[in-house]
Every structure is written in C-alpha cells, then in structure tokens.
Design goal:
The N terminus is likely disordered. The chain has seven helices and seven strands, in the order E-E-H-E-H-E-H-E-H-E-H-E-H-H. The radius of gyration is 22 Å and the shape is globular. The chain folds into two domains: 34 residues, no CATH class; 128 residues, Rossmann fold. By secondary structure, it is of the alpha/beta class. It is 36% helix and 22% strand.
C-alpha cells in the first residue's frame, strides 16, 4: 500500500508516493523530482537524429526502417497518421524528421504534415509514394514545400534526402547488430 502526500514547494505542488513501513522496498523521492520513463531517458540522451517512418503497409515500413538504421540514424515507426501524431506529442523534441507515405487510412501524408507542423513548426517532413499519378499527384502538388521521395528507393537515394536535413549520424562504437566472429566471441568470454 502506498501513501500519497502533498508537498507545497512555493508555487509548485508535488505529490510524493511513499510506501508504508514494512511493505516492499523503501524508496526515497525528493520533492519536485520527476521520475523519467525509459523512453524519456533514451530520447533525452540520444545523440543520433531520429526519423519517424509512417506507412500503413508493413513491408515498406520495415524496409525503410532498416535503411534508415543502416545509414546510422535512429528510426521509429507508425502505422498511420494518428499514431504518428501521438508519438510526436508524447516524445517532444525526439523526432528530427518525418518520412511519411502520401496515401494512408484515417489521415493522408499531407494532413499529417499540417498537424505535425502545428505541433513543431520547424519539423522537416518528406512525403513518399509509389506512383505519383492521379489523386496522389494532386496531393503531392498541394504541398509544394514538402520534398517528395518516389518509392521504391535505394539506400543511397534515401541518404541524399536525409543527410542534408539531419547531417551525418553520430559515430558510435560497435552496435548490437554488428556481426562478431566466433573467434572474437571466444576471446571475449575468456
């Protein structure tokens, strides 16, 4: 059982959760301290720019995500515009670029761009689509200020779009997904 106490700190009021004696671990919480979630720590201290990939189809979304990560950037994904907006709202400042499909259910890429720019006016947004003809061409033409990337694209083409906007990725040490030879693993374990 937890006891909730109210602490008045000038103009701020903070609620502190303190376990009752004998129940669970004792935790001390400083007044005014805010416990950060795991996602907050990652986004706040992550040096790599993060790209939000929004596509309603699984295969293009995961392929684009792998390409972005292969270029050395962080990648997050969303299945539609509503999910993307929720992520942008819940993680302010983390997303440095939105790469969105034009045609999606619930909200097209142009509407997502408008709403995301309402939240973060300087957020770069790149539209992408397979065949910019007909209705898709009209949607793309309605947003002439947004860059357009035609699918399918190569990693090099994606790099040409991302590098000028995001800059070079931050070099890191060995990544978890880098291959380690069997001999190297044997040496590390001994």
């Amino acid at each position: 059982m937890w006891v909730i106490r109210r602490a008045n700190l000038g103009a701020r009021t903070t609620f502190i959760h303190i376990p009752l004696r004998g129940e669970g671990k004792r935790q001390s919480v400083l007044p005014g301290a805010r416990m950060s979630s795991r996602g907050d720590r990652r986004s706040r201290f992550s040096a790599e720019p993060t790209v939000l990939i929004v596509d309603d189809e699984e295969t293009p979304r995961s392929t684009t995500c792998r390409m972005v990560r292969a270029l050395g950037y962080q990648a997050r994904t969303a299945r539609d515009g509503r999910e993307a907006l929720r992520y942008i709202q819940q993680h302010p400042g983390e997303i440095r670029l939105v790469l969105t499909d034009v045609v999606m259910p619930y909200m097209d890429g142009g509407e997502l761009a408008e709403r995301a720019r309402d939240l973060h006016p300087r957020l770069p947004i790149v539209l992408m689509s397979a065949y910019p003809v007909g209705e898709i061409a009209e949607l793309v033409a309605a947003y002439p200020e947004l860059p357009f990337l035609e699918k399918p694209f190569t990693t090099e083409t994606l790099h040409k779009f991302l590098a000028p906007i995001l800059g070079p990725p931050t070099p890191r040490g060995r990544r978890a997904n880098d291959r380690v030879r069997y001999r190297d693993r044997a040496r590390q374990s001994s």
